Structures
1.
Amino acid sequence: MASTALATPRPPETITPLLAPDRANGAVIRAALAYMIVGLGTFLLLGLLGLLMRLDQGGLIVIPAAWFYRIMTLHGAGMVATILLAALGGLAAAVSATTQLKARVLWIALILQIIGTSFVILTTLVGGFGAGWTVLYPLPSHGDIWPLSAAIAMYVGYLFLALGLLVYCVHMLYALARAHGGLTNVLALRYLFSFGRDTRGALPRPPELIAAVISIDGIAAATAGVVYLIPMFAHAAGVTSVNALFAKNAVLLFGHTMANLSIYVTAGLVYAALPIFTGRPWRTTWAVVCAWDLIIILMLANYSHHLYADFAQPLGLQLLAELGSYAVALPSFIVTVVGALTQVYRSGIRWTIAPTLLLLGIWGWVLGGIGAVLDATIPVNQVMHNTMWVPAHFHTYYLLGAVAFAWGYLFYMVRELTGDRDARMLRVAAWLYGIGGAGFVFMLFVAGGNSVPRRYAVHLPQWQVYARVAVPFVILLALGLAWFSWDLGTRFRAAWRGTQGAASEP
Amino acid sequence: MTVAPVWEWEWELPLIASLVVSEVAYVVCWFRGGLAPQHAHLAWKHLAAFTAGLVIIVIALASPIGANDERLLSMHMVAHDLLIWVAAPLLVVGGVPLIGDTQRLPRYLRRALELLTSPIVALLVSTSLLWVWHAPAAFDRALASESVHVGEHLCFLIGYLLYWWPLVVQPEAIGRLRGHLARAVYLVVGMMQSALLSALIMFHGTVLYTTYLHVPGATLDSALADQRLAGALMWYPGAVIFALAAALAMRENRASPLAGPPH
C-alpha cells in the first residue's frame, strides 16, 4: 500500500488518522496495543517497587539492604526497558497508516523483549543480583552478595533486550526506507542540505522521520550493548580480561541511549496525536528535519557525561559529552516544544485526557531536560552527579515526560478505536498524575540540592524528610494511574475489536 | 567438577526397539499417504521432522548425555532440554499431518483431542508435569528407579507434545491457537514458568537432588556447581527455543509454518 501511495508527493496539510482507510494496519495496531499494555502494565508494577524504595528511604518501612539493591536494579533496568517498549509500540502505530510494517516482526521483537525482561526479573528477585541497572564492570562479576551466574543471567537478559530492539529498529528502518524510496528520502537529507529549497520528493511525516532517526540510534545502541556483553561473557568464562573504561563507555552508550530513546520516541507520538486534537497538521518543516536529523549524532555523543568523574576518560570525549548534552537538548527540544505550543495556541482544542497528558509531557520534558543540562555541566556534575539530582532529572523526563506521552497516546488510540468520547472526569486523573508526579520529582530535586546521595539503601535521619514528604505525592500519582488503568481496562476490549475487520497482515 | 563423565552410548533394547518400530510405522503410513489418506497432506519435511525427533530422543537418552544423567545433573538437564524443546515439537510437526484432517476423526477421539490440546489444558499439563517431576523427592525417586526414570521422560515428552501442539499444527487442525496475541501469551507463559523453575534450580543455595551428592567423586561444591550449570542449561537454551518458536509461530493463520504441499 505504502510503497505505491508514497511514490507521489503527499499533500503536507493532511492529518493522518490512526487507522488506514481500509484498516489494513489493523494487525500492526494490535501489536502496538500489546506493546503499550505490556510496557505500561509493567511500569505500574515497577512503580510499586519505586514506592517501596521511597518508603524505605523515608524510614517508614525497613527493607534489608541486599533486597533494596535488588529492587533498585529491577526498578531501573525494568523501567528503561518497559517505557521504551510502550514508546516503540506507540511509534509503530503512529507510522503504520502510511508505512507498511509487518505485525509478525513486531510480535517477535516484543517476545524477545519479554524474554529479556524475564531474565532481569528472575536474576534480581531469585538470583539476588543488585549491581544496578548499569551493570558496570567490575561490580557484577565481583559482587559478594550474588553468584557470578546471576551476573551472567543479567547479561543474557540484556542480550535479549538488545536483540529485540535490534529486530524492531532494523525492520522499522527497512520499512520506512522502502516506503520512501531510500533512507535519504525518509531522513529528508536533500531537503535538509538544500536548506528547504529542494522539495521534489515527498517529505516524510514527522513521526516517520522520527522513527527513522530513533531506529538508526537504536541499532547503534543495540550494537554497543553487544560490544559490551561479549567481553563480559568472555571474562565470566575466564577467557579474557576486561578494559574497565572501554566497558563503561560501551555499556553507557547502550543503556543511556536506550533511556534517551524512550523520550525521543514518545516525542514522536506528540507529532502524531496532537494534530488530531488541534485540527492542525504538523508539517515537516526544515527546522523539524534539521532538529531530528541532528539527533542521530547528538544522542550518541552525550552518554559520556556519566563519565566525568572517570579521570582516565579522554578529555575530548568529556568535552564532546558536554557539548553533545547541550546540543541534543536544543534543536529537537525547541522545535518540538515550540511546535506543540503553536499547535495548541488558539486551536480551540478540547482538553480531554489525551491532549492534557501530551501537554503535561511537554512540560515534564522541558523541566527534566533543564535538570539534565545542568547535570551535564562539568563543574555542576562534579558536585551533583552522585546525589538525588540525577534520579530527579531522569524521573522528571520519564514520569512527567515520556510516560505521560505514552499514556496520552494510548488514550488517543483507545478513543480512535472505540469511537468513544473520553469522560470529562477523566481529566481529574490526569491532574492527580501531574500533581503527584510533580511533587514526587520536586522532592528528589530538593534532596539532590541538599546533597542527599543516590543509590543508598540506608538514609540518615536528616535525609528522610524528603522521602516522607514525597510519599503523599506518590499516593496521588498512584491514584491517577489506577484511574487510568481502570478506564482503559473497561474500554480495551472494544478498542481491540476496533482494529479488526481488516485484511490480515500482507 | 570432580565427577568424571562416561563417554559411552547406552543402547537399551526397549528404547531402541520402540523408536525403530515408531519410525517404521511412520514411514509405512507416510508412503500410504497417512492414516486417512484422502485427507492427509504429507511432505518430505514431515518425514524428516518426525525422524529427526526420534533421533533427538536417541541422542538425549542413549548417547553420553543420557549415559551421564545419573552422574551429572547438568547432563540430565540437557537430556530433558532435548526431549521437551527439540524432540517434542519435531514429533508434533511430523506426526500430526499423518492423522490428516483432525476434524474427521471419530467423535470420541476428536473430543479427547479437543480437550487435551486446548491451550489451557496443554499449558497446565505440561507445566504441572515439569514442576512435579523437578520436585526433589520425585526427581531423586526417578534417579533411584529405572522404571520411574522412564516414566519421568515419558511424562515430559507427552506433556510437551501437548504444549507444542497448539502452536505448530496446521491452521485447520484441532487445538490450533489463532491470533498473534493468543500465541504470544501462550509462548510467554510457557517460557516464564520454565524460566522460573530454571532460576530456582540455578540460584538455589543447597543441593536440591541429593542423589548427586552420592556419585563417586562428588563433593558438595561440585554438586552445587553442577546444579548451577544445570539450571543455566535449562534456562538459556529454553529462551533461545522460545525465541525461535516465536519467529515461526507468529506467522499469520493462513498457513502453518511447516505445513507442506499435498503429498
Note: The radius of gyration of chain A is 22 Å.
2.
Amino acid sequence: MPEDILDVAIIGCGPAGLQAAIHACGKKAQVAVFGRPEKSSLYKAHVANFCCYEKVVPGQALLDAGRIQAESLGADFVTEDIVETKFDNERFVLSTEAGKIFTSRSLIMAMGAARKKLRVKGEKELVGRGVSYCVDCDATFFRGMDVAVVGNESAAVSGALTLLGFAKKVFLVCRELNISKRLREQLNRSDVQVISDRWVKEIIGSDKVEGLLLTENQSLDVQGVFVELGAKGAMELAANLGVMFDAETFSFIETNKKQETNLPGLYAAGDITGQPWQMAKAVGEGCVAGINAAEYAKKLSELEDK
Amino acid sequence: MLEVDDSNFEAKILKADKPALVDFWAPWCGPCKAIGPVVKELEETYGDKMVFAKCNVDQSPNTPTKYSIRAIPTLILFKNGEVFDQVVGAVPKAHIEQLVKKAL
C-alpha cells in the first residue's frame, strides 16, 4: 500500500461495500475493503429485481464484477474478517483475524445483518443463564468452568482462544472452518478441543446451562455456551465505538440521509442499517457513504497538513 | 446516575423506598455501551419514581454472583428488596420501558 493511513476503510465486501469503494475511489481516496465475499447474503442469491438487469443474475457474478471494478479504480481488498475496531487519536484502528492492523481517517460499516441465533431448543430460555452471544463481554463469568463455543468463522475461533484464558476446558463445536491460515494455526497449537463432526441439537438445563446435546446423541457437559456464528457484526464492532442503534429493534445502526452515524467519520450502509434487504438499497446507501466518507477524509487530511 | 457496588448495594438498592433498576455492565463490553444511554434516557423520564443505578461487575464480584449473572448487559429491576424482573442483552428502549412501567 502506498500510504500507511487509509482515507476510507470499508468493512464488508457485499454490494454496499463495493459501491462505497467505487465512489470513494472516484474521489481519489485511498481505499481498502475488508471481508469475505462468500459471506455476503448476495453471494448465493439470484437477483431479478435490480434496475437495468433484465435477466436473472447470479449474485456471485455481480460480486466478482464489483470487485474487479473497484480494484481497477484503485481499491485494495483484504479478504479477512475484522475482529476489533477502535478509535484512537483521530484514527479508526482495525485488527484483522490474522492480526494485521490498519488505520484509517474514515470508516464505512457495510458488513450486513448476520444471523446470530442457533435456533435450537433451550437457547432462548437460557440466555444470560449460560447462553451468551459475546465472548468479550461474558468470558469473565465462566472462570474455571467448562464451556463450548459454537460457530465456523473468525468470531468463534478467536472467541474460543480468548476463553482459554478464563475457562477450564474450551470446546469448539463447528462444521467446516472458514478462517485465515494464521488463525487456524493458532487454533491447532492451542488447547481448544475441536468437535467438527457434530452440531448442536439442544441446549440442556432447567434454570442454567448444564450441557449440550449434539447430533448423533452425543452429550457434552458444559456450564456455558457461546453462540458466535459468522463474523463479528454491528453489535460487536460498532457498539464498542459508541455507535447509536435504531430505537425500534436495537439491532441496526442509525444513520441519516448522508449515511452518517452519530460518530464523526463513521458511516454505515446496506443491510446493517435495516430493511429492506435489497441490493438496490445497499448500493444506493453505499454510493452515498463512499462519497461522504471520502470527502470527510479529504477535509481531515487538509487540516492535518496545515 | 447512581453508581452502586458490593458495599452499598443493600443500602441503596435492596432497602430503597422506590423500585430500583440496576444496569450491570463492564468497560470491556460493547453492548453495555450501547444500552447505557438508553437507561439514562429512562432515568430522565422516570427518575422521580424509580432509582436508576449502574453496577460495574469488574469492581463488584459478589453482587453479580449472588444474582447468577452470566451475561452483560443485564438489567435487574428490584422491588421491596426482591428481584421483580430482569432483561439480558442490548434490547430496545421500549422493551425496558415496559419493564419500568410494570414495576410502578
Note: Chain B touches chain A through 28 residues (CB under 8 Å).
3.
Amino acid sequence: MATIDLDTTRKELKAFILETFLFGDDSEAFGNADSFMEKGIIDSTGVLELVSFLEQNYGITVGDEEMIPANLDSVDNLAAYVQRKAG
Amino acid sequence: MKIDAAAAAEALQAEIRRQIGRVLKKSGAVIGISGGIDSSVCAALCARALGPGRVVGIMMPETDSSPESERLARVLSDKFGFETLKEDISGGLAGLGCYQRRDEAIRMVFPEYGEGWKNKITIPTNILEKETFNYFNLTVENPGGEVFTERMPLKAYLQIVAASNLKQRLRMTTLYYHAEKRNYAVVGTGNKDEHMQGFFVKYGDGGADLKPIAHLFKIQVYQVAEAIGVPKEIIKRTPTTDTYSFEVTQEEFFFGLDFYTMDMLWHAMENNVPSAEAAEALGLTVSQVERGYANIKRKVMATEYLRMAPLEVGEAK
C-alpha cells in the first residue's frame, strides 16, 4: 500500500467524524487532540461505526486488543494508528 | 454502602404510596416479574406499601426465557401474596418478526446459524486490566455444543439489538394494558447501575410511571431484599439478561465488572475518594481504579439520551 500522508489522513478522518456524527455542522469545532468521548461526539456504537470506516477505507483490520482510546479516541490518535497499521 | 435497609424499605414504601396515590392518582401497581432480584424487591415493596390486593405481577416469558424465571416469580408471589398473571409474548414477538430479524442479523456473522442454535452478546470483562472501548462479541453454540465467538460489525450489532429490544417493548405494552384496565401504575424495576449506565431499553423496560429503586446500587438492592424477606433462592440467583437463548450474565453482557467492585468504585468516585485510597480499600491498583472510574463515567455519559424525555423546541404552553 502506498504511504499515507499523516496530514491527509487527519483531514479525511476529521471530515468523516464531522459528517457522520455532527451532520457536517462544525459549529461545535473540536481539535485534533480532543477526546471524542469526553466531547460527547461518539458513544460505543459510534466507535463501531468508526471501526467500520477504518477497515473499509484504509484496508486494515482493527484487532480486539486495539479497541482502545490510545488508538481511537481523537483525530491525532486515529491518524497515528492508521499510519502504523497501513504504513 | 451499607444502608439501614429496614428503614430504607419503610421510606420507599411511603414514597410508593405517595407517588401512586397522590401524584399519579392510580389505585395500584402492575410490575413485570422475572424472578430476578430487582423486580422481586419492587414487587415486594409494592405489596407491603399498597397491600397485596392492589399489586399484580405479570410474568412475560418468550421462546428464549429460562423456565427458572417463572418458577422463581411464583415463589415470590406466594411469599408476598399478590396476584400473578402469565402472558406468553412469543406469538406477539414472532408476529413482529423479532426472531426472524434477529436470526437474519446473526447470519451476517455466522451464515450457518439456524434451528437449534443458541446465541448471546457479550462485552470484554477485563475492563480494569486495560482501558478499552466497549465492543460487542456475538457468541453462538451449535446443536453439537460447539461454541464460536466473533466481534460484531456495526450493521449486525444494530439489527440484533433492535430485534431483541422488541422483547422489552412488547413487555412494556403488555404491562400498560394490564395497568390501564385496572387504573394502576406501571412500576419500573431498574436499579442505579442499570438506570445510570443505560442498561435498559428506552420505552421498553425503561417505560414506566415510577422507578422506586433507580437510586439504589445493586448491592444496596440486595440489602433491602434481605431486610424485607425476599426468598433466598431469588437473592442467590446470578443476574442474567434472560433475553438471549444462550444464558448470559449481566456482567458479561453489559457491565464488564462484578457488582461489588463496580458499586464500590462508583460510590468512591461519587464521593471524590482519591484513586490511591480507593485502591487500598478495594485491593486494586491505582491504574485499575482509574480505569474503573473512566469506564463508569463513559457509560453514564454515552447513555444520557436513554434517560432523556423527548426533546421539544421551545417551551410547551
Note: The first helix of chain B runs from residue 5 to 23.
4.
Amino acid sequence: MKNITWLLALVLFGIQFAEAQGPPITADKPIMLGGGSFTAKTLTELRHTERGNFAYVPVMLHYLPTSNSLVAIHLPYINYDIEGGPSGSSLADIKLMGKYQFFRKDGTGKTFRMVAKTLQTLPTGKELDVMDLSTGKYAGYYGIVAGYESLKYGISNEFGYNWVPDGSLDALTHKIGFGLPLLKPQYPNKQVNLYFEYTNSWLVERDWYQLLYAQGIQYARKNVTFDLAVQVPLVNDIEADRKLKYSLFLGSRYSF
Amino acid sequence: MMKKSIIVSAFLTLMIFFSAVAQEGKDRFMVQVDGLGCPFCAYGLEKKFKEFKGIKDVKIDIETGDFSFSYPSDKALSIADVEKQVEKAGYTPITAKVERANGTVEESSANEMAKKSEGTVSKNVMVAGNCAMCEARITKAAKSVKGVSAVSWDKNTKIMNVSFDMGVTSLEKIEKEVAVAGHDTKNHQAHTDDYGNLPACCKYERLSY
C-alpha cells in the first residue's frame, strides 16, 4: 500500500510539472534528430532471474542518413552466471536495426509520428537461450513504433513480431511508455524526466507471457542523456526456474 | 594610469565598431517551426542548421516554435533554402521572414501571396490569453483559417489583429477557430473542455458574456 502511495505521488508530481521530455529508456521512439546525425549509446542491463544472472553491455551506434530514416548497429558483450550451468563472458548477439518514418503530423510544441522498424539479430552470441541478450540464433523483428510528444507529456508505443527460423523464440511484443518531465521546457536542454514503461511479451511456441513494468528516471543536457531504470515483472507466466526477478538498466547517449 | 585608460577605451571603441560592422553584414532570419515536441527536437534543428557555416545568434523558443538566427548577407541565403533545411531536420516550417542587412524584409511566398490577395481587410478583436504560448496558439488557430493572411496578438492588450480576405472568410469564422483552440474571444466563448486542455500557464481569466 505504501509503495502504491509512493507511485501515485510520483505520477501526480510528474503531471503537476509536466512540460516536456526526452527519449524513452526501455521503449523505443519515433522521433529522429535530423538527417546526417549520429548517436552513440549504451544501455547496460543487469538481469536477475531464477535461472541466473546476466550483465549485458551493448555499444550502439545510430546514424540517420535522412530526417526520416535510421540505421544502427549494436555490439553487445555479456557476462553470464547460470545456476548449475556455464558462466563466463563473451560477445552476445550483434543486432542491426533499420527504421523508416512514414507518417508525421506536426503542431506547435507537439508532434505525432509513426515509424516502421526492423531489428535483425545475428547468431554471434552463445546459445544461452536468454531472449534479447544471447540466443546464438538468427532472429528478425518487424514492428511499428508510434509516438506523440508534446510540451506536456510523451507517449511511445511499439507493436511487433520477432521471428526465428525454428520458431522457438517467436514472440509478439507490445511496449508502451509514458514520459513526464519535472523541469520547465528550456533550450539549451536541461531536463529531468520520469518514465513509466510497460512491456508485454508472448512467446508463441512456448506459450510464455510476461508483463514487465519499468520505472525510469533520466537526466538530459543539450545532447547527452543519462538513464536509470528498474524493471520488474507484473505477470511472470513462464516456465518455473526461469522467471525474471528484476532488471536494472543504466544508460547514456550522446548525439553528434 | 591615464595611458592605460586611453588604451582600454580605444580597445573597447574598436570592439564596438567591429561588432557593429559585423552586425551590419548579417541577415536576420525568423522561422516558425512546428513539431518541436521536446528540447531534443530543438537540438536536432540547431544541429542541422550548423551545416550553414557562419550561422550565429541561434535562438529557439520551444514553447512557441520561434527559431531565429543571423547569417552573413554576402552568402545570400534564401527563405526557400531555410525552409528546406527545416524539412531536412525533420520538422515543419510554418512561416519564415528575413530582415536583410540592407534593410529590406522578405517573407515566405505563401505569406506574400496572401497579403496581395484582393478584398483583404484588417480587424481587431479581443482574445483572452496570458503568455507567449497563448500567442503561438491563438495566431496559429487564426492562421489555419483559409483566407487569413496575417495575425498578431498582444498579450498586454489582449487584442488580436487579423488580416483576411473577406471573399474567403469572415471574422466570425476566425473567432470560432480561436475559441476551438481554447481561447475566449469577444463573441465566442471557448468550450469548457477546450479551455481545460490548456497548460497551467495558459489558464487565463474567463471572459463574461
Note: Chain A touches chain B through 40 residues (CB under 8 Å).
